[in-house]
UniProtKB/TrEMBL annotation:
Family, as annotated: Belongs to the polyphosphate kinase 1 (PPK1) family.
SUPFAM superfamilies xrefs: Phospholipase D/nuclease (SSF56024), PHP14-like (SSF143724), PPK N-terminal domain-like (SSF140356)
Reported cofactor(s): Mg(2+)
UniProt keyword Phosphoprotein, yes or no: yes
Positions contributing to ATP binding: 107, 531, 627, 655
Protein name per UniProt: Polyphosphate kinase
GN (gene name): ppk1
Active site per the UniProt annotation: 498
Residue span(s) of domain Polyphosphate kinase N-terminal: 69-174
Amino acid sequence: MSDKPLQDTQSTRASSESEVSAAEVKKQIAEAAEELVLEPIPEQPIDPSRLAIEERLPEDIDINDPELYFNRELSHLQFNARVLEQAMDENHPVLNRLMFLCIFSSNMDEFFEIRVAGLKSQIEYSREKNGPDGMHPKKVLSLISEHAHKLVRRQYRILNDIIFPKLAEENIRFIRRSLWSEKQAAWVKRYFRDNVLPIISPIGLDPAHPFPRLANKTFNFVVELEGRDAFGRENGLAIVPAPSSLPRLVKLPDDVCEGGDNMVFLSSIIHAHADQLFPGMTVKGCFQFRLTRNADLEVDSDDIGLDLAGALRTELQSRHYGSSVRLEIADNCPVHIVDSLLAQFDLSNEDLYRIDGPVNLSRLLAVLELVDRPSLMYAPFSPGLPNKLAKSGGIFESIRQRDYLLMHPFESFSPVIDMLSEAAKDPNVVAIRQTLYRTGARSPIANALVEAARNGKEVTVVIELRARFDEAENLALASRLQDAGAIVVYGVVRHKTHAKMILIVRREAAELTRYVHLGTGNYHAGNARLYTDYSFLTCDKEIGDDVHRVFQQLTGMSKELKVKKLLHAPFTLRDRLLEMIAKEAENAAKGEPARIIIKVNSLTEQRLVQALYKASQAGVKIDLIVRGICTLRPGIKGVSSNIRVRSVIGRFLEHTRVYYFYNNRTPLVYLSSADGMDRNLNNRVEVAFPIQDFKLARRVKKELEYYLNDNTQSWILQSDGSYQLAKPRKGEYRSAQRALLNDLADNAR
């Protein structure tokens, strides 16, 4: 393993050995930052010949032309690049910048586990399918490899040349083995003897010890050995899996350091004492590596029978051992060892990532628990809460008076929890129904549902077991709710239930009243502090009836049930969106003002993209706020010259989905659980709900304008596929998230 990235620059050595002045350290950091800033984010490549579409007359352009669409996977990779760039943004505190590096690592892991793995599977089973962009999966994989390698190199340069030195300036140090003092080396030796050696299991490779089956993303070492062991074996290689129970980052005690927070990596500890794992042998080299596997669950709906949960439990057991998709290994590992591992895992050089630092940087998030430096992170804030919801008359009384719209995390998620908790205790509540996609088995939401069931309420919960990477947690949640007496169903086999709905039925006087929560995000209190999402609370009769009908479809079996106000995927949502877009185009063609604003996480559904192209051709002014994947190509004369696309990346993860249509001066505003993707509109159970109250609709429009005016965290999509960060003029800094914090957080209304 290479220790090189762990404070291997002059600037970090200076903090430990006083070789250069603090001023020189800062100068070196600034020079490194300047060099990195000048390095462009990889663009989505477009063949120059494809740009010829800009020279055609509008009537000669076919909106099915592949030149009008960006590749989905490459657009996804560009989103990860924008996340990585947050680590370079000096407006973020330094520990938050480190967090963005870690988030980038986690995002890239999932990208390889799901998206790259999916492309490889297409090729392996001869199921290649070109998308609207016309690009063959083999070409896409080649471009992914090219750009992913650039991004990973950039990530480690930022870590080594910028973040580690800046943390060292704050006396937070990641100490290289070569810089350990005698006291530190002695302490590490004891730590290895007492905490690592007893549980680590080195595996020598020979005919009796075949290459171990390594689970997805586990941390391992390949060790090159010389000599014969006690049995006369002389193979030369061994594998050392690092137990998952061991922390990847270890804080040194204060009594062996000279102030500050000082840490060492587990990789350094094992590397320094690898010889103790092979007594009598000579360790020629020790190199860390990590294998990424296909982690997408494929539960065959035809083989499920009547037990989706059982089928999923079986599939979960094999998730950790899917086909290999990526090998990360220390950059100083010899070629012959690398080639041996590539052959072992059936990978090519395109799948190899030589790492200039510790593999799996997401484990660096442990720093936040090991150091107490609130000044190096964003200051905490108190989410706002409307006055009337905070009153003691009870949440049902408040909702009966008016509809409420909350925007998390700027406004509190507690009213949603309070509504369920109050319902669990309220003797007048007779039934609760809820969809759950991502929430903990021991979360406040789960606790309230368990309490309600134990109190004799009719509790029905639709749990989407197949929420990616939350399957095991959802299985545990389902078991807990069933044990409490709740009715648990798993939605529809071929359509994930992604809608976010709560329906509470309460007896009031001589009638039953329905109280509803609809949201754009998940019922997870932790996510509600990190993601931007809307919550809508109402007792509108027609919306209550609609939600009741959607639950009927989910829990029972029936023909499509007509709903009055909700838009319901996979039945009406896509078609109604297309109709509303077409109406704006019709109004524009008549010379009427026309406007569309859509804010989603991703936009890929081809019919939706084509409808937006047609609206642009008719003269509709269209603003798209697309956080992640966008296959629509803006700025093409005669096709999309009226379309602007921006991606906002900041302190919070943008997650709200909003569809706004000017509608000839009578705006239509819908919030939704659905993105503009094929899977959301055609293959999932989703809802979009109207904001009918004029004041609330006006508020949503105002908040959309914050994003459209943002000039500090907005990346503008260009017609060539690149993204350009908006550049504010001096004194004209506008941040949507900062404006929302100022408007909504800790501000009783």
